[in-house]
Amino acid sequence: xTQSFTLTVQExxxxxxxxxxxxTVGAADSFTVATIGYPKPPITGxxxxxxxxxFTDNGxxxxxxxxxxxxxxxxxxxxxxxxxxGVSPNATQAFALTVREKPAIxxxxxxxxTVGAAxxxxxxxxxxxxxTITESGAxxxxxxFADNGxxxxxxxxxxxxxxxxxxxxxxxxxxGVSPNATQAFALTVREKPAIxxxxxxxxTVGAAxxxxxxxxxxxxxALTQSGAxxxxxxFTDNGxxxxxxxxxxxxxxxxxx
Length: 257
Hints:
Blueprint lengths: L10 E5 L4 E5 L4 E10 L4 E4 L6 E5 L4 E6 L7 E9 L7 E15 L4 E5 L4 E10 L3 E5 L6 E5 L4 E6 L7 E10 L6 E15 L13 E10 L14 E5 L4 E6 L10
Parallel strand pairs: 2-8, 9-15
Antiparallel strand pairs: 1-3, 3-6, 4-7, 5-6, 7-8, 8-10, 10-13, 11-14, 12-13, 14-15, 15-16, 16-18, 17-18
């Protein structure tokens, strides 16, 4: 007598693939989850996935994690993968999906400080990993730029006397995902006005004379004059932080003004 005999050997499931994968925002990618065991185990995934990425059981003892992560989804995602073929125990795996995202600077591109007063401005950047932020360009004495190590940087300090003006900086955020983010940044340092020229001048009746009044400060101060002037002499603001007292004093205008 003969008999056809089938021997089935069941085997509990095990996940044989790596427990981590890295995708990049805006780039299509794929990772295959592989298992062993008999029957071929169905595979499920639990945990939040980034928008644009899906988890699909292929029905062959494999599953596919695939897609194009959407903008703004950079980060670390903790998933749990389970393989179950009815032979106990199920196989589970803690899976780490990292989504890299290029940096972008999201804070304003200008700030205003004042000489003698403490000021602070926070530079913020998105991306994953958190980008390092650097600055190039001259800063006023008393002001520093520091990366905080958390995707932000701080421009802060008390501008020293005489540093009023406009400072053109370049801010760069870099996390290893190309391209770097750069921003042209304008730091304005205001400074109160001070008149730096002499407080006296001498003209002569009938002779042309001129005296330049100079002032510091930022923005460049407007200069005005009050008090009677001798006939023939005028006071003119030049619009550049200076003014001109000039003219030919008329006969009979001698005196102290």
